[in-house]
Design brief:
By secondary structure, this protein is mainly β. The protein contains one helix and nine strands; from the N terminus they run H-E-E-E-E-E-E-E-E-E. Strand 1 and strand 2 form a beta hairpin.
Length: 142
């Protein structure tokens, strides 16, 4: 009985993990880098409004170091965001990222860097702000 219960728990855990992984969307890929985004609801104790963020994951597909200079073009409610700042800091739109060979860098709800997390939507009925498109633009790769 114990073995059957462990088997059921294991299968359930595998199914949940597979569902979470399948929600990631590839927003850019070439032979050197893969960029994915998955949606995550982030609730903060000090704020009654929760937010859904697009959590960004960068994967170096090579055995070499990579230096990226890029921008994330964001469209909210089908309108391209034209400012060069993000929603959490005064970072410029153009980003630089260093990746070691085969390195993976991924954001989280607590991430403050705009290239690791983008606002997907406010989860409040009076705030009709929603990310409708995202475009990863490489300016330079070494």
């Amino acid at each position: 009985m114990k073995k059957i219960l462990l088997l059921i728990i294991g299968i359930s855990f595998f199914s949940i993990s597979s569902i979470a992984q399948s929600q990631a969307e590839v927003i850019y890929q070439d032979d050197k880098i893969k960029v994915e985004m998955s949606k995550q609801d982030c609730n903060y104790n000090n704020n009654a409004i929760s937010h859904t963020y697009g959590i960004i994951k960068y994967t170096n597909l090579t055995n070499n170091e990579l230096e990226l200079n890029f921008e994330l073009e964001l469209w909210y409610n089908n309108v391209k965001q034209i400012n060069t700042q993000n929603d959490v800091s005064d970072e410029p739109a153009e980003k630089n990222l260093h990746l070691d060979p085969n390195e993976i860098i991924e954001g989280s709800c607590s991430t403050r860097e705009s290239f690791l997390r983008v606002l997907e939507k406010h989860n409040h009925p009076r705030m009709d702000i929603k990310l409708t498109d995202i475009n990863f633009v490489i300016n330079k790769i070494k």
